[in-house]
Amino acid sequence: MRYLFLFLLLSILVIGVSVQELINSAPPNSTVYIPPGYYKERLVIEKPLRIVGVGWPVIDGGGVGDVIYVNNTWVELEGLVVAGSGTLPENAGIKTYNSWVFLRNVVVNSSYNGVYLVMSRGVIDNVTVVGLGLWRRGAEQFGQLLHEGGYHVGGFEDRGHGFYVFNSSVAIRRSLVLYSKDGVYLEHSYDVVIRDSKFLSGRYGTHLMYSRRVEIVNNTYMYNLVGILLMYSQNLYVFGNRVLRHRGVYVSEGITLIECDNVVIERNTIAFHIYGINVRYTPWRVDSYFYVRNNTVAFNYYGAVFDIYSGGNFASNIFLDNMIQLGATGTTRRVNVKFFGNYWSDYRGDGDVPYVYVSPLSDLSELRLALRFFAFGPSTVVMQYMKLDLPVYARLEFVDPAPRRFQGALTGIVFSYEFVAVGVVLLMPFAVVWLWTRRWW
């Protein structure tokens, strides 16, 4: 069998058979091996096949249409580099229609949308998508991407999504999306799992529209405008994600919810944004639930912000050194959000008195956005202390009746500072010995 495979491989290299001809000649439910090389062609697959690349062959669509189109069948793709789709909004590196697909160890670049699923089901495992946000700009700007995010390199109008999922069900795991519009865009989709993946330098890391039964677990979101945007969706579970450093000229949000129902946000680390958690019209239905628990919300301008229609339960979270721990949008004077057992870094009690948060600074900065320019200056510190000692008027107050005392149990990014301090102390004797043994004489 091994010699037969080598013979076929050599024959393909000599004769120059195209990949599409290999697919057309293969019987259903068989395995097609694509030898190493560069193939400038577009593929259409309409029968059940397993297609395996040997030595990472490149399939280049030449900038026209879809590079690989899977229609009404079952297909497994493995070990391929797919590049060069067209630039229309419906074009993609890999597009499926009414199919079942398994993508494993695949790289998609220079394509408008990376993977586009339409009325399909599948598994996406260890797939890397590099969007047009990088390829359409020169190498000179590449250096700032790692520090400032993809939105500094190009606008979002000329690029598509990393994984575009329409009316489909999919499991995405161990994957990486860079410089796309949205890392994952779900529209009218259901039974979706996104886990152990990274979404960097795009518009929204994960964006849900009219979707249901979605799990977002153990992912990393960095350098986008918004980490996770949940809109008009139900039955959502967001667990164990690292949502860090999303910044734009006008937008900087960790997790944003708009008109969602039955949502649980648990054990995430959300840090370094303007809005850590932004809640609007959630929960939407009276008979639905919204729980936020055991998260670390740290070093944001606003820890969490709500509108007048927001509700939910915040329990056992850590609110650490946010400039404004809690705030309300517009002229909101009432928020139906309940807090219980959270840790507040500005709480001075022993847990025996409620934590009451009022913020005149929040009111002023909502009405006069220019005041945010002074967010980390001495005037802001004066305002923060004024609320403790003077009867300063505030529109509303937030109350946690049973705040948690600090017990050194901070999670996520907070641990790193403690580890650094312990490491310095432990290394000091070794440093003294090293300096003593290298005296100038």
Summarize the helices and strands and which ones pair or pack:
Layout: H1 2-15, H2 19-25, E1 30-34, E2 38-40, E3 43-45, E4 49-53, E5 58-60, E6 68-71, E7 74-83, E8 92-97, E9 100-109, E10 113-118, E11 121-130, H3 132-135, H4 142-148, E12 163-166, E13 169-173, E14 176-178, E15 182-187, E16 190-195, E17 198-200, E18 204-209, E19 212-217, E20 220-222, E21 226-231, E22 234-239, E23 242-244, E24 253-258, E25 261-266, E26 269-271, E27 275-280, E28 290-293, E29 296-298, E30 302-306, E31 313-315, E32 318-320, E33 324-328, E34 338-340, E35 343-344, E36 355-358, H5 360-367, H6 378-389, E37 397-400, H7 413-436
Parallel strand pairs: 1-4, 2-5, 3-6, 4-7, 5-7, 6-8, 7-9, 8-10, 9-11, 10-12, 11-13, 11-14, 12-15, 13-16, 14-17, 15-18, 16-19, 17-20, 18-21, 19-22, 20-23, 21-24, 22-25, 23-26, 24-27, 25-28, 26-29, 27-30, 28-31, 29-32, 30-33, 31-34, 32-35
Antiparallel strand pairs: 36-37
Number of strands: 37
Residue runs with pLDDT of under 50 for 5 or more positions? 1-15, 138-153, 388-393, 411-417
Q: DSSP strand (E) fraction?
A: 35-45%
The profile of the biggest β sheet is: 23 strands, parallel
Name the structural class.
alpha/beta
Rg from alpha-carbon coordinates: 26 Å
Number of domains: 2
C-alpha end-to-end distance:
72 Å
In which range does the helix fraction lie? 10-25%
Q: Based on CA inertia axes, which overall geometry fits?
A: globular
Number of helices: 7
